[in-house]
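Hi everyone,

Forwarding the result from last night's run.
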Amino acid sequence: MGVGDLLGRATRAFTRPGDSVLASVRAAWPEATGPGTVNHAYPTRRSRAGVVTIACSDAVWAHELEARAEEIEARLGAILEDPDAVAGLRFVVADHALPVADQGPPPRAALPPPDPRAVERAEQATRDIEDPALRDLVTRAAARALERDKRS
């Protein structure tokens, strides 16, 4: 999953209906701060006054970004083509509010070896395939298919 997908998921999770400025700030955040920052700091809300709250993974990140606040505000304004889009940045330690990267499905357990009779039948069916790598691949697939058919 890429950063864009992650940002899209987080934007849907945290954006108030109608807050397109916050969604724009979230989309511009990696470009304004650097792509690795999204794993440690992420815009979570925008006040009516236009101050954007940034959830940080720890106090070090909050402090570092606070020191760069003017630069980040200017970059966001340039990216959004609206220097008034962000009235200020507020950095808070809130690691629970950071988007979590999708880890994907859990690894599948290894299948037990197929029944030797299924392997023998598959080898007989694929013996005319000249390429040894292809023959091995097709033999293994055929043996699994024979196993599956036997269980049905």
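The two ends are 36 Å apart (CA to CA).

Cheers,
N.
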